[in-house]
Amino acid sequence: MPARHLDADEAALWARVMASVRPLHAVPAASHPPKQPLPNAVAPSAEAMPSTVAKAPKPATRPGDTLDGGWDRRIARGIIQPDSSVDLHGHTLHSAHLLLDQGLDRAIARGDRVLLLVTGKPPRPESERPHARGAIRAAIGDWLAASRHAHAIASVRGAHPRHGGTGALYIVLRRPRASRKS
Question: Cα–Cα–Cα angle for 90, 92, 96, nearest 5°?
Fold first, then answer.
């Protein structure tokens, strides 16, 4: 995209903004930009400015990154059999969060591989009225990521229609590591 030149009003506004900015740390005088921008000066773009912000470290493996394609094929064909289930219908956000945590606790203790989480269907996109439907479903991702059981979750996938379709999720748990004897 070609650069756009500032008109007189924009240049005056830009000059006021630049005059109000102070660096967070001392910068050698030679590297300070001129106080007054030139008429018809182009505002610097984000790509042209050097980045002083450190880049975020690469996130750890998130749920969904560790399953092979066989899982997705089995889910699509409907041959996954959940070992246990947790139904969050009729719960408040607080009680649903506690129930999910307890369900994960039990499933991990039993050595379950797949937990069926029934959340209820999200509101229809064409729904016009404001409502709180889907609040639990919307919070599930954050709850699982921040859970004390996050290390035990291999993936979260949408359920097959026979297990609830868009109203349910499969939580695939990691296999427990065999204890090593030395």
Answer: 85
Both structure tokens of 182? 């030395």
Rounded Cα distance between 43 and 35, Å, is 14
Sheet of 153-158, strands arranged across? 84-87, 114-118, 168-173, 153-158
CA 109/CA 116 separation, integer angstroms: 16
pLDDT class of 173 with cuts at 50, 70, 90: very high
Say yes or no to pLDDT of 57 above 50.
no
Q: How many CB atoms lie within 10 A of CB 147?
A: 15
Q: Is the pLDDT reported for residue 101 higher than 80?
A: yes
Whole-number Å distance between alpha carbons of 97 and 143: 7
Residues in contact with 93: Cβ distance below 8 Å, sequence separation at least 6, in sequence order: 135, 136, 139
Task: Reduce the DSSP state of residue 91 to 3 states and report it.
Answer: coil
CA quadruple 144, 148, 150, 153: dihedral sign:
negative
Query: Which tops the pLDDT comparison, 16 or 176?
Result: 16
Name, in order, each residue with C-beta under 8 angstroms of 11's C-beta and a sequence gap of 6 or more. 37, 39, 40, 41
- Of the pLDDT bands very low, low, confident and very high (cuts 50, 70, 90), residue 113 is very high
Element at 173 (helix H, strand E): strand 168-173
